[in-house]
# Entry
Amino acid sequence: MSRPVLTIIGLSLTILVSAVAVVQAKHKTREMAHQLQVERVERDKLSTEWAQLQLEESAWANPDRVAQVARRELGMVQPRQYVVLESQR
# Structure
């Protein structure tokens, strides 16, 4: 084979390999963009759930509610007379 024919074949193979690489890179980019979108949706869902759990925790930890549950379910009462002793350090 002559030198120009080998050059054309070599360049054609190079172009073909380059085209396949571009297609693979484009496909991988699209897959990763899709995965990123899926992860963002999951993050938003978890963020919403976290906010709801924090709100629920604040409702459960409300001092008035805790006192009410202590009286109703545990039968606890606040003493009528008590003295607070300060610690001696």
